Amino acid sequence: MPGGGAEHHDPKTNLTVRTDRGGRVTQLEGPNSRGVTTRVSRMPMGERVVVTGERGNRVVSYGPNHGFIERRTLSGYLTRTHMAGGRLYAHAYFEYRYRGFAYARYVPAFYYGPRFYAWSAAPWGVPVVYAWSGFAVPAPWLGFYAGYFSPYPAYSSPDLWLTDYLINENLKQTYEASQGDQNPQPPGTAQPASPVLTAETKELIAAEVRRQLAEAAASTQSPVAPTGSELAPPTLSQTYFVVASFVDIVPAGTQGCSLTPGDVIQRTGKTVAPDGNIDMKVVSAKPGGCAANSEAAISLSALQEMHNQFREQIDGGLTTLAANEGNRFPAAPPTEARAVPEGTVTPVADAASLLADQEASANKMEDIVRQGGNKP
Fold this sequence. Notes:
alpha+beta; 2 domains; ten-stranded antiparallel beta sheet; about 25% strand
């Protein structure tokens, strides 16, 4: 294959195996026990992503306890039941098309009142000390990625706290996905003297958080329902993104690399190319990943997914702020939350078992490859 990798197909097991130029297995593809196509991808640091089915009817897992179940409804929506840390929650999305390419747009379950959004972007009178480690038990991903990210010890405003919340949530996802590897290694051979993710980069993200809080505060009604006309995706109004999924890119002059959750990229392109891609640049990435300042094209759909998860995680952080105002955080005005019926989704009841079954199928597929193609 281009770049020095190889593709192997075993007609006996109906498995296709792709390797990089060094012989490392990067992807397996084949039918699961129910005959549905399953793809198992391994990222450079051992993170595993498993996808069964296709858009609108798929199961995606990033480890034994992290992933989502996606279903398409008759009314033009996508619903995703997410599992993270043993907790189930669900989101809804509208499906649109733009210049012939499909993308999904996040629909919030509710909006807060303008005063609460204003409080969420205004300075606090006294800096707030916040422990991300959970006090008694340190969060393992913070130690694992200590050379990349260090939370602020105190926060002068909620938008800065929301910025660290976004990064923390995505690094947690990357760490949990790496636990499928028997010997996960911290990124890089030595920890840098200071975190790779700088305060200047975090301020760029914080500015985007403030912009999206202002947009939410100005929302007075439910999002527009899907129509037959095209609609430009909101990702085209966002410049800086915290990567929230695993995406392969090919910067010029390289064999390609993988963006992983917690990396930061900048959209540099203004228009979508005929192939559905748009230009971007890597601002910050974990040691061993894509090089900072490398430029590449990324699909509109992948960038929109980053925008969706940026909005979802802001909403998750706001929920935490609202639940702890007057306690761990300064007192806030009433939230005045109002529901968005289109965004209210009930989680799939058997989501946990579906994700567990998928992880088991992925384990069997990898076992077959380790045993030289002989079924166990």
